[in-house]
Amino acid sequence: MGLAKLLYIDPGTGGMLFTVLFGIFGVAIFSVRALIIKIKYSATGNKDSKLNQTKIPIVIFAEDKRYWNTFETVLDEFEKRKQKVVYMTCSKDDPVFDKDYKYITGEFIGEGNKAYSRLNLLNASVVLSSTPSLGVFQWKRSKNVDCYIHIPHMASDIILYRMFSVDRFDAIMLPGNYQEKPLRQLEEIHGIKPRDLELCGIPYMDVMKKRLDSAGEVPPHETTVLLAPTWGENGILSKYGEKLIDALLSTGYKIIVRPHPQSFVAEKDIMDRLMSKYDDPSKVEWNRDRDNFEVLRMSDILISDFSGVIFDFSLVFNKPVIYTDTSSIDTGVFDAYWLDETPWTFRILSDLGIELNDDNIGNIKEVIDKCLEDPSFEEGRNKARDEAWGCIGQGAVKSVDFVMRKYKETVAKNNEAKQNVSAVSNKKTKSAKKRK
User: Fold this and answer.
1) Rounded mean pLDDT, 88-105
2) Residue 410 and residue 217 in contact, taking contact as beta carbons nearer than 8 Å
3) What does pTM read for this prediction?
4) Which of 13, 57, 69, 305 matches a 20 to 30 Å C-alpha distance to 358?
5) How many C-beta atoms surround the C-beta of residue 338 within 10 A?
């Protein structure tokens, strides 16, 4: 028993250690792969390697077309300023290829390791991306990139990313002011030099709000409940499944279920079972629209877990939510593990709606009605909006302003370095001439 106690590791620490060890293993594996690719390119004079010799001013990397809403208005702003940008995407059918840009160049860089091989040898002044885990797994910092900037794709906590996901970025754009304090604490804990943390807002939310303002009043309709969970073992469909859907059907309200796209990959058995059981569209509507705007607009209340759609629905559409218990979520794999304070994303939920749990799931209609009628939740949404959504309406402008500032800083720094090298070289040349 004494030995067992000595060897015991609590789940949070165990998760953290697993993440660290897995990260070290991943770094070792992909470092070897990157070295092999680099040797191969050097030996063969690969065409892509030659193209990479010219420094690209600004690169935006999107790992999937579903992040188009994060970048579209930012690209439009770059286009407006006639600033050349290369938009590198891992999706062949990315919407960028349908745009008639003059200054933005879309480039499909392949998927998986092929894409990361291109990025790892990139030669650019600034790289902007919403993809985390730079320098943790496949995606390495290229020695020829001067500045990496992270742009979050939702309003929720950056500290709920996997451990060390943003440590290697040089700068981070903040959706709201509340994000700065925990990131500064992480810098201190991880021994990272303070970086530029710039409040830039949330460009895609600005677009949603603009669309909503121009869409007009929602036409009269029956009370509509939207169930939009994330995927994984902590998601609603994994946790409650039929129990929740049956309870919702008993309310008599219109029920729409919009699963996370990854559910159809990672939870295929669950999805096949549920969609087969609830296949009557007059009772349950399954929504898989690429654009979620209309389903959010037409729904009166949202039931979700820790998906970012909670903040889209609350802050943009100004409607109440029902959320799942967050206390069971293991933060041992997230950066939040290092901090004593509960993440804002979890703290704010009680201001936005009511928690769904085993005790009240059988009375889901009462929970829904209370959320729709209680005025205190509107006050909570106003509070959350003030804290999490900065620079409303100016997200794209602020983001591009920041990227351009960092770009100009890198150019000035590189020019200064060249001048210093040139001065030293000239001094050596003059000294050599004098000796002759």
Assistant:
1) 97
2) no
3) 0.82
4) 13
5) 16
